Amino acid sequence: MYKMKAEEIRIWIQKERIQKKLIKRKIIFLFHLERLNMKIGKMELIKRGQLFCRLRILPSLIFIIMMVSANFILWGQVIINNPEKPKNRRAGRVIQLEEVQRIEGDGENLILRNPQQLRQLEDGSLIFFDYPYVYKVDKQGKFVFKIPKQGQGPGEAQYPDAYLIESNRLRLYSWVPPKVLEYDLSGKLLKEFKTPYHGPFDFLDIVDGKLYGVRDEIRFSDAIRQEGIIRTPYRLYEISSDFKKLRKIYDIMMEHYIKNAHWVKRAMFTMVPYGHYLFYVHSAEYQIEKFDLKEERVERIFGRRYSPARTKEEEKEEEEDFKDPYEQFPRGFRPPPQHEFYVQRIQIFGDTLWVKTSTEKDEGSKWLIDVFDLNGNYIDCFYLNFPANKQSRLYGFLITNDGFIFVGEEEAETGLLSLAKYKLKSY
């Protein structure tokens, strides 16, 4: 009995050893199998991750390729990124200007402060706005009229804002008191009519047979009670001929510094019409937008790589001559210094767009002008070289279709302003 039990125990021990070996082998097999599965799974995960990453990175790569390419279409808008230099071999040349006329104030009828909104009529006469008056001089630069009479009574205006030329009529819009005064081109008042209060417009003109205006909306919004650097709209309106109805078309966002219900632009705004389009700048950077009034949308955005170059001597002079752009405001209202406006004015000349940049040489006697076609392609650039006549020039200027430039100038010694007319000698 005892022997049988011992034999059974021996057999049981042998079975247990075999079982343990099998279990050990199974464990080892399962371990290696698991490692193999992990490797396969990891490879699969890597493949999937790579595919996921590719799918995530693909839109960014496409966007980067689009940004560095010459042009592309984004949400229906054509975006054109021009190079720093145009392809024109003559780009960078100097164009001489010859003075042919100078219009000076007489201290009584014609007093020049800051002539803006310059327009040349078909007979060669010139009309311009120099707050608070609209002036006209004939082809020879002789005074013709000054309007309106100052005041708030009949035929008077205290805060005239802008004027329009329609056929042989001049319409002057005043926002205090709110009215429109209509004159013939000799300065005779024909009629006037009251309007709702709309405030001042930063652009007002007849474009493609309709009246359009752009208005700073701060005074009509809650933004006027805010403080700091804030983006607010310059709103584009279609205006009825009687100025009673404004139809909102589009908001052009602008950056302002606002404090104590006062505000200062921190971006350049300048606009010119052509056909049924508006070209405008609303940034301190080099960016121009083309707005289609028929489609009522931005049709394209364009500019170029721009880096205003200065010598160390010029930078030192600028630092020495620097004046706080907000020095006319109380200390508590002054915002941080703003940076330079790269585009200072735009003008249509023929079938091209001229851009007056911030780059100047020889104490402001040379202006760098960039030239774009009306599709936003950068085609040319040159320096306008004004004669050395000890005059500092205002940014507001007019280039006429017959190749003349009108620009306001200030005499360095006396501070007196005049309007100079220059001829392009070689363009």
Structure overview:
The protein is α+β, with helices and mostly antiparallel strands. It has 2 domains: 2-68; 92-308 and 341-424, TolB, C-terminal domain (Neuraminidase, 6 Propeller), CATH 2.120.10.30. It is 18% helix and 46% strand. The protein contains 2 helices and 29 strands. An 8-stranded mixed β-sheet has the order 23-24-25-26-3-29-28-27, with no helix packed on it. Strands 1-2-22-21-20-19 form a 6-stranded mixed β-sheet, with helices on one face. A 5-stranded antiparallel β-sheet has the order 14-15-16-17-18, with no helix packed on it. A hairpin with a 2-residue loop joins β14 and β15 (210-216). The longest helix has 67 residues, at 2-68. The model is unreliable at 1-5, 44-49, 51-55 and 57-69 (pLDDT under 50).
Helix content: 10-25%
Tally of helical segments: 2
Number of domains: 2
* Sheet having the most strands: 8 strands, mixed
CATH topology of the largest domain: Neuraminidase
Query: What is the total tally of β strands?
Result: 29
Rg computed from alpha carbons, rounded to a whole number of angstroms: 35 Å
CATH superfamily of the largest domain: TolB, C-terminal domain
CATH architecture term of the largest domain: 6 Propeller
| Overall spatial form | globular
Identify low-pLDDT runs.
1-5, 44-49, 51-55, 57-69
| Order of neighbouring strands in the sheet with most strands | 23-24-25-26-3-29-28-27
Strand content: over 45%
Q: pLDDT average, as an integer?
A: 83
